[in-house]
Design a protein that fits this description.
Blueprint lengths: L2 H7 L11 H19 L2 H26 L9 H12 L6 H17 L4 H5 L3 H29 L2
Helix pairs in contact: 1-3, 2-3, 2-4, 3-4, 3-7, 4-5, 4-7, 5-7
Length: 154
């Protein structure tokens, strides 16, 4: 197994922490997003998201083949990807929006509401990554709906 694959899919070993590794992956995404919007710019985050998303299919598959498991808990790059989706549309820091995006994503990631549960059953890296991607889309829809409702009522 490639060490690059191991460090990538576990986010530099963060996934090996035994308590709530998926939550840590989501928090890492938020920290990278916050660093991007405060020190760099949102375009850096866009670029990083696309790079991570495209690279993850091959690198997660390499790791799965080596471990001979369907979805090892230490693989948390999928949480990074899913949590990043709603963050892409948050252009400035707002604690309420950030907390809402985090909590809603974690809810969907944990409870696997339809069709997330169906996507999770796809074999290989696609299933590992895309269930969190769909959870991220659900989160994005809810966060943006709340923002629109608050804007209309303001």
């Amino acid at each position: 197994m490639s060490q690059i694959s191991k460090y990538f899919v576990t986010i530099f070993g963060l996934g090996f922490i035994p308590i709530a590794p998926g939550t840590l992956g989501s928090i890492f995404a938020i920290l990278v997003w916050y660093f991007s919007i405060t020190i760099l710019n949102i375009y850096f985050f866009y670029f990083l998201f696309i790079l991570v998303f495209l690279s993850s299919f091959k690198l997660v598959q390499i790791y799965l083949d080596f471990k001979k498991k369907d979805d090892p808990s230490e693989v948390i790059i999928d949480e990074f990807i899913g949590q990043s989706l709603p963050l892409i549309f948050l252009f400035q820091y707002n604690a309420y929006d950030l907390l809402m995006a985090f909590c809603i994503f974690r809810f969907f990631d944990i409870f696997k509401i339809y069709p997330i549960n169906k996507v999770e059953n796809i074999n290989g890296a696609t299933g590992v990554i895309m269930d969190d991607f769909v959870a991220g889309i659900y989160t994005l829809i809810i966060v943006m709906t709340f923002k629109i409702i608050l804007y209309i009522n303001a």
